[in-house]
Amino acid sequence: MGRLSTAYGQAVAAHRHAAYRLAQARRALAVAAASAAPDTAELVAGLDRIAAALTAPAAPPATGPLPVRIGAATTVDGGFPALVPLGAGHHLVVDRDARDARVGALLRTLVLRLLAAAPAGTVRVAGIDPATLGATFLPLRPLVDAGVLAPTATSETEIAALLDEAERHVRGAGQAGGPAGELLVLVAASAPGPRELARLTALTHAGDTAGVCLLLAGVSPGAERTAPHATVLRLNERYALLGDPPRHPFSPDGRGLAAPVQLDGDPQPGAAAALARQLGPAVRRDDPPTFADLLPARRWTESAATGLRTVVGRAGREPVTLAFDDATPHWLVGGRTGAGKTVFLLDVLYGLATRYPPAELQLHLLDFKEGVSFTEFVPTDRDPSWLPHARAVGIESDREYGLAVLRGLRRELDRRATVFKRHGVSRLADLPPAAALPRAVVVVDEFHVLLAGTDAVAREAVDLLEELARKGRSYGLHLVLASQSATGIESLYGRAEAIFGQFPLRVALPGGGGVLDPVNDAAGRLTVGSAVVNTAAGVTGADTVVRFPNAHADPTGLARVRHELWAARPDGSPPPAVFRGYEPAHPADTPAFTALHPGAGTPVALVGRVVDVDGTAAGFTLDAVPGRHLAVVGTDPTGAEVLHAAVTGLARQHAPGRARFLLAPLVSEAQAVAAVLTAVLTAAGHPVDRLDAVGLRDRLTTLATPTAQTDTRTYLVVFGMEAAAGTLERPDPETFRSGREELRTVLRDGPGRGVHLLGWWRGLRPLVDDLGGAHQRDDVACLVALNVPGADLGLHLGAHDLAWRPRPNRALLVDRHDQRLQLIVPFVRPEREER
Ligand SMILES: Nc1ncnc2c1ncn2[C@@H]1O[C@H](COP(=O)(O)OP(=O)(O)OP(=O)(O)O)[C@@H](O)[C@H]1O
């Protein structure tokens, strides 16, 4: 208030001085009038009116215009200050642009005077200068650095973005229903294109309380008509002629001030820097938005019936709200690595989760990169809380997990279609309250990973995304696809338009201009923490530059919000289904494994967890059908772990004495596992035999011999089957049958007699040799492929487009009998990781 009264005091003093000089001028003119000089009587009358205006008690600056000096009106008697009203619905139009040095100096001077006259932080200035590419404002650089003056808009895109911001500012003032708290001064040093100029002049009609003031240079005199709220200044070679200020005319007939005006020159050198020092601290309050700015005043008070809305940041000082609704059902977000995509998505998710209760909003979050994007939404050892809206969260997801989530969502759409039919509605909002369904927001971070290549996973993912995008609008399912690049994705060739056409809302972070129209370069100059938001599928001119807060900068604030939401969750809310791509699978953490018990039917060999939404246990039933044996293939020592899990699981399914285990650890890596297994099985009361290669061969002969049917199972567990190749190849001197022949008999006939082989082969080739050729592959119908190249495996299975790429902590489960192919996380013992 102190600064306001000082500025106002200064303005009043200037008025008084002007009034005094005016009186002097009037006297001089009266003398001239007496000598019948033409026009002087009129001039006197005009000056009288100005004097009346100047000496009348002025309205406080908050509600009235500021009188700002533009130069000196010259009379025969000398000069007096020429003032123009600015602000509170008053604007200035100059007929020449800043390429006339007098205009450039005038604009700079006016900017300094307006800033100096108003309380710090209440005036914001933005320049437009297409003709001199910003040169007009260069001397004011210290004010730009201090954040008082916005960087000059010179290109069509920048000017359009600035106009968007100004229009939002005006709308914001309109909605607030009173004088805007801040005066936005738009200074056009030269006229922009006709469209932008039309938008600028339209702003001059915004009214006294809109909080916007335009100084338009280089606008033709006809602008008087287009800008009835502006004082018009025309320049001739020596002077400027000042038109009548609207509502405070100098002349009775619109001829303006009769005294020509000598415009003030440039401000003193150093004036801009001094002002910047003075205003900087107050303006720095206009720091980037904070996380708290995104949150609603009260939690869970909004209804999602017609869509979801959240504040994502600010454009200038205006909050920017984005929606998932009929107009913008899906969003496409682009930005290079480190551009702030994850932070932006977190801002959106917290904004939504605080506005809508879990009954109105569900979240499905998929992250395909190494990182921790959505970890904070799921329970951990350190923090048991979770975001109650989260239904499925994939962290460092496999593509197959993404596919599983998308398939689940398609089923959800089918379910919703049935509900809609039952109620005879076609929109979510029309469902009766008792049948209301939550909206679902599905975020896929780094979606290009999911769609990479042209394999079966990519093809199915593209189909699913297209279907979800197409139907999602009416069923309340909204997609947010984020990526470093939305272009050049092979699997999208010919499909991109059909899919991205459903994504009208584009958010381009730094380096993410690819989500905008190819000719739209609005994202070219973004810095981290800002984004271009475009609600017209990226076309030029529909851009808003938004600054968004760094959610990660306030982890405590974030945790507080999350805990508050968690504490408020409805009774019985389940935690989200979580898939952590980096996490190994332990039998002891898998409910289906720990639930195994004797007498539960056909034994199953559990080998890991399926990469799916529920983390289903992965396994094979070992029934009496020929070929019900398990081959674990690959050099990865996990092979021994998989057999360990399968065997301990089988042991749990048999009462003591009802199963026999024959363990053949033929390779050194398996000795320790076999020792542990022997101890476990023995402790469980099961007979265990240890075999070497020769013992294995002998036992195969025994097992191949038909015996009377018993209900005792025999599990022959061989670690490193290829190590017995030499022994098995040799024919028996008496029967002339080789060990391999005995083996093949066991493979075919064993299951019928309760005999199953569980073997680890360290390569596909030895397995094929043992089977007697690839055409015999069904003799071992259950396969767990570890580090086996996809091409080799595809060849072995006769599947030419097998989407398998060997990687740590993953295996491909193949059951040739039920045509099952599943990506699994193979079981390992916890102690193995510690080694
Ligand atoms: N609004 C912001 N304000 C200030 N700094 C930010 C903002 N957003 C992000 N950053 C900074 O950028 C860093 C990277 O952000 P983020 O992790 O969101 O990037 P990303 O695009 O997801 O990158 P990547 O794909 O490599 O994970 C953050 O750690 C933070 O330091």
Care to describe what's here?
The chain is α/β, with parallel strands linked by helices and 835 residues long. It has three domains: 57-268, P-loop containing nucleotide triphosphate hydrolases (Rossmann fold, 3-Layer(aba) Sandwich); 323-580, 3-Layer(aba) Sandwich (Rossmann fold); 587-834, 3-Layer(aba) Sandwich (Rossmann fold). It is built from 24 helices and 31 strands. The strands form five sheets. The protein has a ten-stranded mixed beta sheet with strand order 23-22-31-30-29-24-28-27-25-26, with helices on both faces. A nine-stranded mixed beta sheet has the order 20-19-18-13-17-16-14-15-21, sandwiched between helices. The protein has a seven-stranded mixed beta sheet with strand order 5-4-6-7-3-8-9, sandwiched between helices. Helix 19 (693-704) crosses helix 21. The longest helix is centred in the N-terminal third of the chain and has 33 residues, at 2-34. The protein is elongated. Bound molecules: adenosine-5'-triphosphate. Adenosine-5'-triphosphate (ATP) is lined by residues 288, 335, 337-343, 371, 528-529, 548-550, 552. Residues 317-518 form the FtsK domain. Keywords: ATP-binding, Nucleotide-binding. GO terms for molecular function: ATP binding; DNA binding. It comes from Micromonospora mirobrigensis.
